[in-house]
From TrEMBL:
Organism of provenance: Pseudodesulfovibrio sediminis
The protein's name in its UniProt record: Radical SAM protein
Superkingdom classification of source: Bacteria
PANTHER family for this protein: SPORE PHOTOPRODUCT LYASE, SPORE PHOTOPRODUCT LYASE-RELATED
């Protein structure tokens, strides 16, 4: 019987591959994964090596582009000095996402339907080996979910599986896999449950239903978190973006209560909370792509990073409600804000990152299970 790909991959209707990557293990794996599925016969186009991008515009259809990446794979997260940033490093494995969340910043970064995967994994591993192996006493907290979803394309690429196998030899690295889908095929690639942090973003059920498309349900994500916790992994959960909408208290209260039907506080390495932030060019894109979305018309002020953010009293009200509820469930030191000021930290938590030696330092310790 012909198989179907997971729902979030069914819009892929074309594969582009760099001339130099045609016979790469990645290209062979994608070919093999597509064969025997209803998408087995989608066209493959070879891209000349001097060409850097592809033009693709076929309605709703998405293209996969297996590309030779020539830039730096290991980067700093693009946080801003004006706010407390968590100091994590990005392993850049590709760009864009097959799912569709109305608030997604990637819409402003990549205004096309091309899902890029850096297929030259050998170059990636050489660079990572040079960095991680240079001084084994330097610790790294890294993640792949900044310019893409860490696991969205895993079914076709096995990227995280390969990366986790590679990282087995680096005790000084913790990898966070941040996703909104469930794919646990990477689990058998590691014996180091203390060096991989599976992570899921959560939101209020209303936001999940109305603003996130082709993603796994909240229940599926939490079931996956429970599976990982039972296997010995610590998990991370993220509330980002928190959105101000009528009924937000009931919504965020419900999802917070639901978390603890699946995992215990001691299973959670850390949990971030971040309010919806929007760079000026994103707003019209959201309005265009998601005409039913209304939260973009809330009252926003420009932040120090140039992004619009909800008025501070409203942010603080939401944060206080959520933090109080999470504390009732036994969460405390694992909670942190994504891109907030000292004043907001103090107002909600009663302390700020400088009181405990800095956010990056604390998260590093928590990632390494200290
Ligand atoms: S799953 Fe994440 S990366 Fe993908 S569209 Fe949603 S917010 Fe963007």
């Amino acid at each position: 019987m012909t198989k179907r790909l997971p729902r979030h991959l069914r819009k892929i209707g074309h594969v582009f591959v760099d001339e130099t990557m045609q016979d790469s293990p990645m290209a062979n794996r994608v070919r093999e994964k597509l064969s025997g599925t209803t998408q087995a016969d989608i066209p493959w186009t070879v891209v000349p090596s001097e060409q850097d991008r592809v033009e693709f515009d076929e309605g709703d259809t998405q293209a996969l582009y297996l590309k030779e990446y020539k830039g730096k794979f290991l980067r700093f997260c693009p946080g801003t000095r004006a706010y407390h940033c968590c100091g994590y490093r990005i392993i850049h494995i590709g760009e864009n996402c097959p799912m569709a969340c109305s608030y997604c910043i990637l819409q402003a970064y990549f205004q096309d339907r091309v899902l890029k995967i850096w297929a030259n994994q050998n170059d990636l591993f050489t660079e990572l080996g040079n960095s991680f192996g240079a001084d084994r006493k330097t610790r790294y907290r890294v993640g792949t979910g900044e310019f893409t979803d860490s696991l969205a394309l895993e079914h076709l690429t096995g990227y995280s599986h390969n990366l986790i196998e590679f990282l087995e030899q680096y005790d000084n690295v913790v990898l966070e896999l941040k996703s909104k889908v469930v794919d646990l095929t990477w689990m058998d690639a590691t014996s180091r449950t203390d060096r991989i942090l599976p992570a899921w973003s959560l939101n209020a059920p209303f936001i999940n239903e109305h603003e996130e498309f082709d993603v796994s349900s909240l229940k599926e994500r939490l079931e996956a978190a429970r599976t990982c916790a039972e296997a010995g992994f610590k998990v991370c959960l993220h509330f980002d973006p928190v959105i101000h909408y009528p009924g937000w208290k009931e919504g965020y209260g419900a999802i917070i209560d639901m978390i603890f039907d699946y995992v215990k506080p001691e299973n959670i390495a850390y949990m971030s909370i971040g309010s919806f932030r929007c760079m000026p060019q994103l707003n019209p894109i959201i309005a265009d792509n998601f005409p039913d979305t209304t939260y973009i018309y809330n009252e926003f002020v420009p932040g120090l990073d140039g992004k619009a953010r909800l008025l501070r009293p409203l942010r603080v009200e939401q944060f206080t409600f959520m933090v109080d509820r999470l504390r009732k469930h036994g969460m405390d030191k694992q909670l942190y804000f994504c891109m907030e000021s000292t004043e907001v930290w103090n107002e909600v938590f009663g302390y700020a990152p400088m009181d405990f030696g800095g956010l990056g330092k604390r998260l590093m310790a928590q990632a390494f299970g200290e």
